[in-house]
Specification:
Layout (H helix, E strand, L loop, with lengths): L5 E5 L5 E4 L1 H7 L4 H7 L3 H4 L6 H11 L3 E9 L5 E12 L5 E10 L1 H18 L4 E6 L4 E4 L1 H7 L3 H4 L4 H4 L8 H11 L1 E9 L5 E13 L2 E10 L1 H22 L4 E8 L5 E6 L2 H6 L3 H6 L2 H4 L4 H17 L3 E8 L5 E12 L5 E9 L1 H22 L9 H18 L3 E8 L2 H8 L1 H17 L6 E6 L2 E7 L3 H17 L14 E7 L6 H17 L5 E2 L4
Parallel strand pairs: 19-20
Antiparallel strand pairs: 1-2, 1-5, 3-4, 4-5, 6-7, 6-10, 8-9, 9-10, 11-12, 11-15, 13-14, 14-15, 16-18, 16-19, 17-18
Length: 542
Amino acid sequence: MNAPIGVFISNPDGRLLYANAALARMLGYGDPQDLIASIVDIDAQIYADPKDREKITAALEQNHETLNQECRFLRRDGAPLWVSFNVRTVKDEGGGTVGYQGFIWDVTERKRERESLLMTQFAMDRAPDSILWVDHEGRIVYANQAACRSMEFTPDELSKMTVFEIDPDFHFDQWEQHKEEVRRRGSLTFEGRHRTKDGRLFPVEVSTNHFYYKDQYLACAFDRDISKRKEAEEKLRETERRLQLLSDNIPDSLIYQLVAEPDGTRRLSYVSGGVEGLHGIARQEAMADPQVLYHQIEAEDRQRLAAAEEYSLKTMTLLTIDIGYRKPDGVLRWSQLRSTPRRLPNGAVVWDGIEIDITGRKRMEDALRKSESKYRKLSIVDGLTRLYNSRYFYNQLRKEINRANRYRLPLALLLMDIDDFKAFNDTYGHIQGDWLLSQFGQLIKKKLRRTDFAFRYGGEEFAVLFPMAEIAQGIGAAEKIRSELGKKNFSPVPGQEVRLTVSIGIAQYQLDEDMKSFAERVDRHLYRAKRQGKDRVCAEGL
């Protein structure tokens, strides 16, 4: 009763006359009697396809009243199961069919395994990359269609070969070490070469792992033809060699990539050989520590460069700047830096740039400036204060606005008016008034950067341009001027004190704003300072 084989007897209509316990369990019933009593429509209750019984009956007649076949049944709960059965027809003395008897086996798991194996075989045979199964001695036990096509062997030919015959770089004496490495790491990826049937070699990338089947070691290798990738890599290397040769031989210049890491550190990811000619520093030394290049730059230019880099980093805009630096021989030289920033996925920023030696141009410009200096000063410098005059103010303001718009750089403008200057002039005379203006002009100069421009705007009014400066820097300079003026005694009479104050307006240039609108905004802040009691700095937000 406990046999794993189901046994049954049925009448010609399919009604069960006998069933053993194994068949009842197989179909999900409590016992044989439960099964026999419950099955009233064998077509609908037992067969997954009700037409199968009719086909089986017809097949019995064609196969001399016996049949071995697989079929899909239904369990009591409706779950399908595959069975294999052996059935024969029972005849009476007159040759009429009186029933059927047979044996049934549950082959569901076997069917699933076979289907899974077929699916695996189907998938591997249609995989675009080569797949090889190799036994513990390196013999090929399976090769998919892609492997056969790539090496131009038939499956039968490959099944008689070893991996040592298809890979000239892989030797038998390395096999045990290779297997141990795969066992230790679980999987292994490496590059090799495969040999085709006609002897041609092509590069492959091999990804291999291992498993045990019936206690036997098997390696499964996925081999990808990387011929095109290798060709592309070689072309890329050749392009890199040409670019390296080109960048190293551009006269009086160097190419570089400067990286600003998310933590604020700077490093050179690339610098061409021109660094040795321009800076007298070996390329390897510059790559190892870019600070050796920064230390060569003049202190003030180093500050300007740091500010330009920060602004470029903040706005992701082109960085253009001229810098002076001294090579190890101490001679002052000049370079122009031009670089474009781009952001990397990790948040770092790379400047792709070029540095060009402009020493010759700078020396020519310096000579030209010196030869023209006295004539230019006559036209652009105020003779009393030694500051630039109002005519030059408008020329320079136009230039700085154009520069700000072109390179997206900040620009601030400051206007100043000495408070109650007329009263001083009326009290002490024009000579003392001129002396006061001269002193104030020198005071302004001392509080500005070398790159700033100071002007006598008219009478007792003064202006200062702050190129590449945010408004906060301009406000700081304005407060220094105001504070310093308040400390000075301008009395021409001994023993008497005369303190003067200044009202100041300042504004930040708005990109693409016209010059007139910008100047008028600053002027309104100046007059606001006057209206609010003088001796103060007024700006947006102040």
